[in-house]
């Protein structure tokens, strides 16, 4: 009995066949040498919330460290992105509730918040890529991504509205249109619309596998839809139980002309990310959504997690699972950290 606990009696080399995995972990230089994936600033897309006003900054309570910025300050954020080398930012508006209606008409106003921000940012920092979200939820009084008929979100009429929204954004200078609405056929319709209007170079990043997730909660606080959303989004966003369905969605989006695909949320769906990248081998992105950010930050604030390490580890996991890039609210913090390293 006691002999078993005696190191001299245990022949580890026989057990492992002389393989010692720890050799390659012995020092920082050795670990760096065998590292399979690396996170770099080129992997980052930074989502930014915008709000009406001048020199106005408002904290988002459920997302510590994240703020809504008026257009002038959003320009300053874009300049910060440029300085840090972050390739692209994604814009999300908090629309004045007085401007929301059942049709989401404000989405088609060429002078809405997103469009004004696009113009201002494009003229100040043209080298930063501008991603705009196509979906009606920041603009509808009921908080849905599409048009409501009774209790149904109607597909085809919504798609027509989304095409118009995409054109308005492209006209304002958006470089990448990112449809996050999950209507059928929207990628193809938007591509045709963009091409017909002469926006042939505008890319489409399709939210291909977007799940009906509880992790969007803080985002809905940020854009002011959590209080107004009627029901849920399960008739258009995907069932979290499914993965084959994600492949079909991505296949259709690519056939319809998507230049890039996305999985959302991120961390709970790394298996989906892996499958999509393995299957299609196209530029594939993950969205580390608001609830993932909030979870990490809440634990950090309680002193339960080392924030820096949790941030880097969570983002490295996306690279390991095959992501070509990550939309993350940590983008500026990561970029700063990478620049300091
Ligand atoms: C809206 C949209 C959502 C997010 C991005 N675009 C929320 C939703 O579908 O309700 C979520 C992003 C996040 O949680 O960080 N179409």
From TrEMBL:
Reactions accelerated catalytically: 2 5-aminolevulinate = porphobilinogen + 2 H2O + H(+)
A Pfam family the protein falls into: ALAD
Species: Propylenella binzhouense
UniProtKB keywords: Heme biosynthesis, Lyase, Magnesium, Metal-binding, Porphyrin biosynthesis
Protein name (database record): Delta-aminolevulinic acid dehydratase
The protein's Enzyme Commission number: 4.2.1.24
Entry annotation: catalytic residues: 210 (schiff-base intermediate with substrate), 264 (schiff-base intermediate with substrate)
GO MF annotations, alphabetized: porphobilinogen synthase activity; zinc ion binding
Metabolic or biological pathway: Porphyrin-containing compound metabolism; protoporphyrin-IX biosynthesis; coproporphyrinogen-III from 5-aminolevulinate: step 1/4
Keyword Magnesium: yes
Primary enzyme class: lyase
SUPFAM superfamilies hit by this protein: Aldolase
Quaternary structure and partners: Homooctamer.
Family as reported in the entry's similarity comment: Belongs to the ALAD family.
